[in-house]
Design a protein that fits this description.
23% of the residues are buried. The protein has a domain of 121 residues: Glutaredoxin, CATH 3.40.30. The protein has 199 residues and is an alpha/beta fold. It is elongated and about 75 Å long. A hairpin with a 2-residue loop joins β4 and β5. The protein starts with a helix and ends in an 18-residue tail after the last helix. The protein contains 7 helices and 5 strands. InterPro entries: Thioredoxin-like_sf, Thioredoxin_domain, TXNDC15. This is TXD15 protein. It holds the Pfam family Thioredoxin.
Length: 199
């Protein structure tokens, strides 16, 4: 019984169909541009697996994860690796429950099967996650290289404008200016400023 229990504990949670890598010389991840749709790249009728990273270029956690994620395609050549800017693909982020970035999901076909939930985001923890979910052994000689720091996923944060924050601040400033001009109409908000009634 114990041997059976051990075997079932080690059984992969996701049974991935491994892709044919014959003729492929360079294993790298694909970054989706604004016009590409993730769902078009995932085949709903297959059982192949894809690891998808939701990131933003100005997030320091995404930047520190980048070289480790860049090296994964060499460790698991039979799997596909995609990355997309969550700020440019907000509908997908919402659809798959991406509240914070970086967020890593393992898809089988077009169905999300597992989420990477470790705070320690290194090549080793990522390899362990993939192996525990799929049972696919990583190549042992893969390490993070200098080239992985350069791309394709950027390991240097870009400075960007948080348009939502800017819009919120502008809205707040406009409201304060309007309220100041119309103090008579909001006098009820200020304690002790009730109108006195003459009898």
């Amino acid at each position: 019984d114990e041997a059976n229990g051990t075997d079932s504990a080690k059984a992969p949670k996701v049974n991935c169909e491994e892709r044919n890598v014959t003729g492929i010389e360079r294993f790298t991840l694909q970054i989706l541009n604004v016009s590409q749709d993730l769902m078009e790249l995932l085949n709903p009728n297959s059982s192949d697996c894809t690891l998808v990273l939701f990131y933003t270029p100005w997030c320091r956690f995404s930047a520190s994860l980048a070289p480790h994620f860049n090296s994964l395609p060499r460790a698991f050549p039979t799997l596909r690796f995609l990355a997309l800017d969550a700020s440019q693909h907000s509908s997908l982020s919402t659809r798959f429950g991406t509240v914070a970035v970086p967020n890593i999901l393992l898809f089988q076909g077009a169905k999300p099967m597992a989420r990477f939930n470790h705070t320690d985001r290194t090549l080793e923890t990522l390899k362990d996650f993939i192996f525990n979910q799929t049972g696919i052994e990583p190549k042992s000689d893969v390490a993070v290289t200098e080239a992985d720091w350069e791309g394709p996923l950027p390991s240097v944060m870009t400075k960007g404008i948080d348009w939502l924050l800017l819009f919120s601040l502008l809205f707040l400033a406009t409201f304060v200016m309007y309220a100041t001009v119309r103090t008579e109409s909001i006098r009820w908000l200020i304690p002790g400023q009730e109108h006195e009634h003459q009898e």
